[in-house]
Amino acid sequence: MQAEKHVVVIGNGIAGITLAQRLRARSASRITIISAESATHFSRPALMYVYMGHMRRQDITPYPDWYWKEQQITQLQDYVQTIDFASKTLQLRQNGSFRYDVLVLATGSSAVYYNWEGQHLKGVQSLITMQDLELMQQQTQGIKQAVIVGGGLIGIEMAEMLQSKGIAVSMLVRDNLYWRSNLPVAEAELVTQHIQNCGITLQLQEELAELTGDDTGRVSAAKTQSGKVIPCQFAGVATGVKPTIDFLKNTGLELDKGILVDYFFRTNIEDVYAIGDCAQFKDPAPGQPALEQLWYTARQHGEVLAANLCGSSKPYNRGPWFNSAKFLNIEYQTYGFVPHDWDEQNYGSLYWEHAAKTKCIRLFYERETGLLKGINLLGVRYRHDLCHHWLQQNYTIHQVMQELTAVNFDSEFFQHYEPVLLQQYYQQFPDRQAPVKQHSWWNLRQRFSLFSEKADNC
Amino acid sequence: MHQNLYLYFRRLGHALLIISTICLLVCIVGYQTFDPVLWGWSGILLLIVGSLLLIVPGRLREHVAHQNNDICQQQATTRGWSAWLLGVVLTGFYVLLYWFPYTLQGLVFALEPLSQWLRQKPSDHWFVYGAFYTLAVMLMGVHALLKYRNNRYHLIRTCSVIFFQLGFAFILPGLLLAFNKPEFYFSYFWPLKYDYLFPSTVGYLVDNGAALGVFMVFWGAVVSFVATPVLTYFYGKRWYCSWVCGCGGLAETAGDPYRHLSDKSRKAWQWEVAIIYPILGFVIITTLALWVNSWSGGSLLGDLSGGFARTYGFFIGSIFSGVIGVGFYPIMGNRVWCRFGCPMAAYLGILQKHFSRFRITTNGGQCISCGNCSTYCEMGIDVRWYAQKGEPIIRSSCVGCGICAHVCPRGVLKLENGPRNDRYAGTILIERDSLQILS
Fold it and tell me: What positions does the domain 4Fe-4S ferredoxin-type occupy (chain B) (predicted)?
């Protein structure tokens, strides 16, 4: 990227920010990040901690002001009204027209509402933006009961937030267990039980029919499709997200659910790119999602686009999937791909669960080849670098078992459950031998070079 | 726990604490009229019962997932009026203790029976200080144990600091006195306990303690110069700062609710290095000068080295470690002394940074930059700065308390000891830049 070029990024979430940082590491070009939401980048997953009083607003901004100054990355808080792709000009609400040479759209997601009756009542909202957080702080002052619509990751976050303020929470979950559309039965049961033990009411197999209000226009109850009426003074909508692209409609930019891009994040218009939640792959590789709406993938999108803007020509290749979350007090990590249901003939898994139902480990593999397909962890931490290596190098479950002792990442003095998992493995595979030696993480790290000495490793 | 029962305990706890304060004030102000033992002990017992009534039901009622709820929204933990009041009371206590100890005579009388029983010596204001200090570590130790009850590292570590404070810094020195031996703290070392290697203290120990005194001098020197580098090599400075040290013990227990108040800015780090290393240098120079003076019979330096020692004792030993170090807990966080002032921390820090196997590992590319780690770092380290780049955290100031790893909602951090080669290397799963906070 030539120094005289002006790269403008719309959106200061993790995708846009990563792009700007990685671009700066490679190029002296002028970089401006525009966001209507906030003056500077903040960590979106951390919004909940501000509400719960774990942190203040300034604590969730990952980079201090001097950083942006020293990196010469300009941040502009303004709202992009329209884009004229022909003249490469943005119309901003406060700063008027604004020229770019290269435009990167990283506008993120907005909440999906399903046109329920009463969805515009006071006290009904989702939680995605900083403004949503402020609204939620206002709208939940002094209330007693709340309903969360949707049993996903944002839903459980909102439930935890509300509960921290002593508000009774009911969650409407479409499936028969929490997050069953993503978790196998055993894991979903474990999490479901934990949520219930923490005092959150789960209304399983219930969907929202309508929201009713009182005479002040405020929500007063949620009615489910089975006819249950749950009184509430707040309704959190967490039924998924969709790319924020409304302002791009009829501009000549190719859109579907999101902004259509190839694996170089190029849109149909020259010098215009899209990354993060708002981007949709035009021809996703078989078995790969068209939309990737994760923190981690957004960061990777930014990294890859920055490299490509600076002359690399490597398409985006995500590598083994990973994700993490926290359900109240239970941490969740997943590496590779564990489906929520599978055919037992072709796939098998080693599964261990703690008697207290607070921890579990699942190693999922293909029976015929023994290939490791994915790992699910609840309440147990594994080393990302090693799991990534196993999946990248197509380890079989047998090879994984040889290195299993090196993978645990729990704090010191925590009990390790890998021996139990190994026992199970020998029961499933009686002809297999015990590992010749116990590997330590440090040996494997050295042997497979699972580290990078240099900074600026882009 | 039943809500009403909890509220009942809470009110009772507050009431007992108020009565306790009155008793202690009567003891301090009116000891000439009222029986100081009766009023003093009533105050102490009510303080214990009242605190436990607040701490135990309060923590048990709180689910472990809610450990830090409201911390940044309550006035007591966000420099509100009660934080300032507590700061003034604590600071005031230190001012009285150091410069007007006779004002605490009532408490000295109150603890006379305990002192006689434990030490077979009359009580004095330093005994009063030691007793209240230990009590604070124990009561708030209960708080820390209950708060972090879902984490074994913190359970063991908290038990360790309570054990060392109660056993090594309170009971053992008392017993030594009871057996007519020199008073000695086996858990404090030069350069924190700077005078343990001063010629005057060495002389006193050897003269008054006979064989035991020689052992004490030997113990102090061996721990300072041999055990400290060896243990720090294997475990980092945490073996001392958050497992053994009394200052660390108070910070990790009584100071725990204030850990988020530490300043995370780059400026604060600049101040840190500008203050703590000169203090270490000052202790070293003072010690050397005192020995030179001692060997030369005072002919070489006159009273200069003594002046050095007194200056250090006044500004660093009293004002910094006590008045500011503890008195400012509710305002500047719980590790002000450890971070900016402690020469032992400086010494351990240099070892930790350059000659240690310790580091906090970041788990691959898992960081979501939320900031819980940085917020709850009592040493003001911007932990997130490293975590979001996938780098290990290796900072001389890190005391290895382990709270960053505990509050991380994605389990990204792990305190561990490993080989020193490629110790600073990060993950291959995130691209990062070379920009450092301080070069």
Answer: 358-386, 390-418
